[in-house]
Write a structure and sequence with these properties.
The complex is a heterodimer. Chain A is 63% helix and 3% strand. Chain A is mainly alpha-helical. In chain A, strand 3 (307-310) and strand 4 (316-319) form a beta hairpin. The two termini of chain A are 22 Å apart. By secondary structure, chain B is mainly α. In chain B, a hairpin with a 7-residue loop joins strand 2 (96-99) and strand 3 (107-108). Chain B is elongated and about 120 Å long. Chain B has one domain (1-410, 421-468). Chain B has helices spanning 2-14, 17-60, 65-71, 111-114, 117-120, 126-142, 147-152, 154-160, 165-197, 205-235, 239-268, 274-302, 311-359, 363-375, 379-406, 433-463, and strands spanning 73-76, 96-99, 107-108. The chains are: A mainly alpha, B mainly alpha. At the A-B interface, helix 2, helix 3, helix 4, helix 9 and helix 10 of A face helix 2, strand 3, helix 4, helix 5 and helix 6 of B.
Chain lengths: 532, 468
């Protein structure tokens, strides 16, 4: 009996205008959104390849102080289905001694083309949330109230038909109608993916797509139950559609938008400028301490830097100096570089507090939005597609761990205490100032003191005239890149399915429980429904 | 007679549960939207002031002109006061640009990238409330205007008297429109009143004019859905069918068309990705910078001072060469960037025009674009700000290069502290009212046209309506 009711519902729906409208909507929108997102992904992939090449190129350095790996995060292929936050964040992380990875740099796609930001374009899962929920409500809003108005309800129940069978038949009927639409959406998207050669999903990614489908089924059945419940509480179908409509707008538009703002007003957003100001102060303190400590270092015999490049984060490359100057820099690095790391920890305390506060705000917003099934669905999709905040946080944590590994690599080699940290010149051929002068002037001037006297005596003469020979070790082009084959490499262990499911366990539970509750409620109200 | 119908319609609606519900919903949502808008604006303003002070501090603590030219200065975008009502794309686009002698400036650090919470959850401004909720309410007020009366059987009774059909329709339309305006305008006025209470929100005469036009476009937008409801209710015989059709049309107008149009524009007229442009810019920059060292060395080798030359004079000559050389290479960089940028921008603008015009089929898009233009929070204002920075960059680099090279001290680690008194300042003049209005004219026209079309449709259909 249940089956015949279900099939009757199904055939009824199939010929109705709403089915045609829903089907057409899906037919146009789903491929469109998928194609657009596919193209975006390809653009990101291209950008990733160039950035990765640049990062590899940047590893060809001649001194260890210039060695600062840059991690480039490959774009997430599943972002085609759900963008999550992936479009708002950069994808490169610079590993530094003086700072822990705080936020990724590089370009975020969203800010490039203002027209293409989240405000105007939308992904597969959001479209699905929008269309599926609406269709589910449209197919069920008049399930009881409509039949009552038509007068068919009392006729049906004058036969020996249990009310529960009727209700189950209606649920199945709506399911039978919606499931083909949903499957159609997924099959089209899978077809598009299979036809595009740039995308090759792994097995686990296909599993994720399968899970997405499962979650979508949960999601639309929840809205089917909601529609049934509302319909069994209303006398007229006009009233039930109005209530359905408001429920839909409330869940899809109002709740998600208010949740963010409420969370923002309960937990104040910490000021990023304040953080930068505070970390700036810590950096200034570093320079003060460095200057104080450097005052005790032995003075070199000649302050001469033949070829010297200094950059941020301890980067220094000195080619051509006297032995005592090299030694002075080596001694300075022994304390200055570990100090850099210590100060990074001090900054991190503040940065961590800032990030924690942001995260607290986000969690509150997420919890508030659990009221809305569509927001739960979108969050679930983004966690299945690895574009959720947790996945991003795990990525940042892994870059933090890699930084530790990288520092350990330096420490194991005792690199800060070595000359190789800042100069490629071989230490066994370092010369004193007197030796340098003697060599370069080919014995014309014997010592540094003599040279100083010479320049005092002839203040307008140019010293370069005295140079007869150049020192071979002082030419930068003599040095090739360092061999860093033993450097630990970063590898990004993407979240496995279990992890993503763990992130979303609560949400799935809420989705299922709400669905069950709504079904129970509609069952009870239908049992008591006045069919006349 | 018209008056009687209007009064009857008005009294009928005001005493209904629908009206009370609408009033409460409107009051809560509108006030909430204005309040969050004010709060956001105030935090943005605070952040902006803090960042301006911080940038100033950073600038003044630069030890030398070299550091200044290399690190450059940061320019923050001031928040728009009308973003309290229309957030627009402000949160999604960058707010800070670094200007230095090398890279082409770009706006970074959007609110979404510093705090992704806001990207997951949407915006909640007055425009959003009008676009989504109030349009729905407008439909709710008219979906059963005609077919509902027919279902109840009151329509044939009314027309059995000597009452012209057009008068009945007009009376119903005016009556329900007035009863819709009431729950809308009162909270709106309270909201605007709240806006004036906050001391850090200063609204000039022009801003009030803009607000006036915003209110006008809101009302026009609501009228579109109102007349659409009237039209559909004269084309259907059952109120549930009428509501169903209206609902589908509403969903298409509000959510589907605007997004689909932008996507379709991307397909019809693709624009090269920004990454490509940036990669080209960076490659050129590296080419210039890579060649620079060699060219300087070559010059030094060719012009190295002979024994007996005056050291001072040679240094002056060298400085002059360095300045000219530096100016020349930054000019090349700027020119290349400008060339790449103009090409890219013109393509992007074309795509944008297609997207905007396609999506204007939907009144919701027309409202959005119109409101963003009036609020100064749209795409074009963003691009204008970015361009003002791009125009400022050559001015700054010219100044910084000249200062850097003229103040070069040879053979000393002590460099003079920068003096900022004659540094060119970046200035940005927001779009003036007449320009904004000119840009919103199509939106007003589209909305007005839709109102007329729908009302005329309703009128004609009602004259032929089967009232039995």
């Amino acid at each position: 009996m249940i089956l015949s009711i279900a099939f009757k519902e199904f055939y009824n729906n199939l010929v109705s205008a709403r089915f045609v409208i829903g089907f057409l909507l899906c037919l146009v929108l789903i491929p469109l959104s998928l194609v657009v997102n596919l193209e975006d992904y390809q653009g990101k992939r291209k950008a990733y390849e160039t950035q990765f090449k640049q990062a590899e190129e940047a590893l060809k350095v001649t001194v260890y102080s210039d060695l600062r790996p840059r991690i480039v995060k490959p774009p997430e292929p599943l972002s085609i289905f759900s963008r999550g936050i992936s479009y708002n964040l950069g994808s490169t992380v610079n590993i530094q001694l003086g700072a822990k990875p705080f936020e990724p740099g590089g370009k975020a796609a969203a800010s490039d083309n203002p027209l293409m930001n989240a405000y105007f374009s939308v992904d597969f899962c959001s479209f699905l949330a929008l269309v599926l929920s609406l269709l589910a409500l449209l197919f069920t809003y008049d399930a009881c109230s409509g039949e009552r108005e038509d007068g068919t309800l009392k006729q049906v129940f004058s036969n020996s038909l249990a009310r529960s069978s009727m209700l189950l038949g209606k649920v199945l009927g709506a399911g039978l109608t919606l499931l083909p639409i949903l499957l159609f959406c997924y099959l089209t998207s899978i077809l598009i993916l299979l036809l595009s050669p740039e995308i090759a999903f792994t097995f686990s990614e296909w599993v994720r797509v399968g899970l997405l489908l499962l979650v979508s089924v949960f999601f639309f059945s929840l809205f089917v139950f909601l529609g049934l419940f509302i319909s069994s509480r209303c006398r007229s179908s006009a009233a039930s559609i109005i209530v359905c409509l408001f429920a839909w707008v409330f869940f899809l538009f109002i709740v998600p938008n208010i949740a963010g703002y409420l969370a923002g007003s309960f937990i104040e957003t910490p000021s990023e400028k304040g953080l930068r100001f505070a970390t700036g102060k810590i950096s200034a303190a570093y320079w003060d301490e460095l200057q104080k400590k450097s005052a005790d270092l032995p003075q070199p015999d000649w302050w001469m830097h033949w070829n010297y490049n200094v950059g941020g984060d301890g980067s220094q490359r000195l080619i051509g100096a006297t032995k005592s100057l090299y030694e002075r820099y080596r001694l300075q690095n022994i304390f200055s570089q570990p100090m850099l790391i210590d100060y990074a920890d001090k900054k991190w305390a503040l940065e961590k507090a800032y990030l924690d506060e942001l995260d607290r705000q986000r969690l509150l917003a997420e919890r508030l939005s659990l009221v809305s099934p569509s927001q739960i669905f979108r969050l679930l999709c983004s966690s299945l597609c690895r574009t959720n905040v947790e996945s991003y946080q795990r990525f940042m944590e892994s870059t933090g761990r890699y930084r530790e590994e990288f520092i350990q690599y330096f420490r194991d080699k005792d690199i800060f205490a070595s000359y190789a940290y800042f100069t490629p010149a071989p230490p066994e051929r370092f010369m004193t100032a007197d030796e340098v002068i003697r060599y370069m002037t080919d014995g014309e001037v014997q010592s540094f003191a003599e040279l100083q006297e010479w320049s005092k005596a002839y203040p307008y003469k140019n010293i370069t005239a005295l140079v007869k020979k150049e020192i071979h070790d002082w030419q930068p082009e003599n040095y090739g890149p360092l061999d860093i084959s033993d450097m630990p490499r970063y590898n990004w262990n993407q979240d496995n399915v279990a992890q993503s499911l763990k992130d979303s366990l609560v949400k799935i539970a809420v989705l299922l429980c709400t669905g069950a509750l709504l079904f129970y409620l509609s069952f009870v109200s239908f049992m008591r429904y006045d069919v006349r | 007679m018209l008056r009687t119908i209007i009064v009857k319609e008005l009294l009928d609606t005001i005493s209904s549960a629908k009206f009370v519900f609408t009033f409460l919903l409107c009051t809560v949502l509108i006030l909430l939207a204005v309040y969050t808008g004010i709060n956001n604006y105030r935090t943005e303003l605070k952040e902006y002031q803090a960042s301006v002070a911080l940038n100033r501090n950073n600038l003044e603590s630069q030890p030398s002109y070299q550091a200044l030219a290399g690190l450059g200065l940061k320019i923050s975008k001031p928040p728009q006061v009308l973003s309290t009502l229309v957030t627009g794309i402000q949160d999604a686009v960058g707010r800070v640009a670094s200007v230095n002698v090398a890279y082409d400036p770009n706006l970074t650090d959007s609110k979404y990238s510093t705090n992704p919470v806001f990207a997951i959850f949407g915006e909640l401004d007055l425009t959003f409330i009008v676009r989504i909720v109030l349009s729905l309410l407008a439909i709710l007020f008219t979906y059963d205007a005609i077919c509902g009366e027919k279902e109840r059987g009151t329509l044939k009774l009314a027309l059995a008297n000597c009452l012209p059909r057009d008068r009945l329709l007009l009376g119903k339309a005016i009556g329900s429109f007035l009863s819709l305006l009431l729950p809308l305008v009162i909270p709106l006025l309270i909201g605007l009143l709240i806006l004036t209470v906050f001391p850090d929100i200063s609204l000039g005469a022009e801003d009030w004019l803009r607000i006036g036009m915003l209110v006008l476009i809101f009302l026009l937008y609501i009228s579109v859905f109102f007349t659409l409801g009237l039209f559909i209710s004269t084309r259907t015989t059952r109120s549930s069918v009428s509501l169903l059709i209206l609902l589908v049309v509403w969903v298409c107008f509000v959510t589907v068309v605007p997004k689909a149009a932008v996507m379709a524009a991307g397909q019809i007229y693709p624009v090269p990705s920004v990454h490509e442009i940036t990669a080209q810019k960076d490659a050129f920059l590296q080419e210039i910078q890579g060649g620079a060292q060699k060219q300087v060395m070559d010059w030094v080798k060719a012009n190295s001072p002979k024994p007996g030359d005056d050291q001072k004079a040679w240094q002056e000559k060298f400085k002059k060469f360095l300045e000219d050389f530096q100016q020349e290479s930054t000019r090349k960089i700027d020119e290349k960037n400008a060339a790449l940028e103009t090409e890219y921008q013109s393509k992007r603008q074309k795509q944008e025009a297609i997207a905007i015009n396609l999506s204007r089929v939907s009144p919701a898009s027309a409202l959005m674009f119109g409101a963003m233009s009036l609020g100064g929070t749209g795409i074009s204002e963003h691009i204008r700000f970015l361009n003002s920075i791009k125009n400022y960059k050559p001015e700054f680099t010219k100044w910084a290069n000249a200062k850097m090279m003229r103040n070069l001290q040879f053979g000393s680690t002590e460099q003079p502290k920068p003096d900022f008194s004659d540094m060119p300042q970046h200035s940005f003049v927001p779009e003036n009212l007449s320009q904004s209005v000119r840009r919103t004219l199509p939106d007003f026209a589209i909305l007005g046209l839709l109102v007329i079309v729908f009302f005329a449709g309703a009128y004609v259909s009602f004259l032929k309506y089967d009232v039995r």
